[in-house]
């Protein structure tokens, strides 16, 4: 006898800033038999997973693999491997996640220069040009593609050009864009990128797809100091995930890969590729427009400049208790949406349309539920 009841999580509709609802197909993959992390059958699945990650990222980078850990582990992996104590770096801040990049960079011992704009705004090419001219010794520029805290979508190609013209590496947070917005790692010359599984890939949280360009690998290989994180040291991790460039099969144990999560990610990426990356992006956009017009017809307004399809940041009307509405959506309708963060705390809702959750059915269900809550709260 135990005092505990069996696990029985509710079937929520997850429309917050992540996690998104996981399709049964991925849950089934997660429940497949666990293999050993050096079993040739498993290595085959893992290699396919890395290849599908390249396909979705739009890259041929050999060093593309899933970091064991959520998006923040991916962020940390990029920073600890590409920054040495004493390096100068530049970071763009327009919300929560740019601020976290800065914190990570400082912990790596870097001198960090910031390009800051108000929350919700995006960073201009001119602002980057000014920053790289002012700090020519900087080795890297970090930026967030899809700022989940505000709904701002950052354009990247022009900025990448400015960064490379200055001879610096370009590092991008794509946690809320991979699988939901256009993202072209090679065409946009991104040197280091990290994402997460539980946003637009609709996989449970637990892995962070990352990819490093040959220039980024060169910077890592030229390090004079060891990476201070043992767990996230890519010089060791790559011997396992990519065979270190040696003949395939030469896989060195570093840590036990989260086998079943890799199955889940493999299934999630397969679903993305079956749908087609471009079609998937188009679906997110179409569903976002439908949500937007429905909300606006109800008299609600987006936070100005909020243009992400995957994360819709909507102002809470005057006099409405934003937390009470979210509470009612959850308890009466089993729908989860997010509250505002930072400067938008208490003043906005964050509605995710991510992956499996980006459907007409979810949009219409939420609109009807929200209408009810607003009329009677
Ligand atoms: C969610 C998110 C992260 C952090 O990912 P976790 O999986 O929560 O660790 C980082 N950056 C952005 C833009 C995010 O939306």
Automatic annotation (TrEMBL):
SUPFAM superfamilies: PLP-dependent transferases. One of its GO terms (biological process) is glycine biosynthetic process, by transamination of glyoxylate. Keywords: Aminotransferase, Pyridoxal phosphate, Transferase. Gene3D superfamilies: Aspartate Aminotransferase, domain 1, Type I PLP-dependent aspartate aminotransferase-like (Major domain). It comes from the Bacteria. Its EC number is 2.-.-.-. GO terms for molecular function: alanine-glyoxylate transaminase activity; L-serine-pyruvate transaminase activity. InterPro entries: Aminotrans_V_dom, Aminotrans_V_PyrdxlP_BS, PyrdxlP-dep_Trfase, PyrdxlP-dep_Trfase_major, PyrdxlP-dep_Trfase_small, SP_NH2Trfase/AEP_transaminase. The keyword Iron-sulfur does not apply. Substrate binds at residue 350. Residues 37-341 form the Aminotransferase class V domain. Its cofactor is pyridoxal 5'-phosphate. The modification N6-(pyridoxal phosphate)lysine is found at residue 199. PANTHER family: ALANINE--GLYOXYLATE AMINOTRANSFERASE (PTHR21152:SF40), AMINOTRANSFERASE CLASS V (PTHR21152). Belongs to the class-V pyridoxal-phosphate-dependent aminotransferase family. This is Purine catabolism protein PucG. The lineage of its organism: Bacteria, Pseudomonadati, Planctomycetota, Planctomycetia, Pirellulales.
